[in-house]
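Per-residue structure
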Amino acid sequence: MYYLIVFSVILSFLNAFLPSIAKWVARAIGSYKPNSSLQIEIDEIKGRMNEISIKDEFAKYTKLQRLLNKKREKLKAEVQMKKKTHLKLKLGIQYSSQAILTFVCLVLFWTQRSTPVIILSENWLRPFGSILSWPTHIPGALSLPLWFLVSNTVAKIASLPFA
């Protein structure tokens, strides 16, 4: 009976912190490093452009400027590709783990639907006793769906500063 309290709280907090966990795992798996050789080439081109006078060697300067623009566009495209891959990885981890957690919760609800999480005095739950004990129908009992709803709400509120 008390294992349901602990297990549902763990599931609730996992569910609440899942986006943060998925972001952290995606960063660990697909660490982002821009193409350093391309950045070195861009720096070299900038250095050569600084050595050249625009007025004296305009054709050479514009040729280097076009080359620099091409390299920057290539670097920008690589960065965008890496960002897209990182986003796909993060969302894949988040949605697959969300599906697993949902399945575990559904199985838990189905198998433990008639088991009360905790039994209190019937007087403590006087006007709402039948609602709080549904589907167990034991007087003074708190059901798993209600307890999960409460713990999930607390977990979501607790995860707000980390979102």
Remarks:
- The chain has two domains: 1-32+113-162, 35-92.
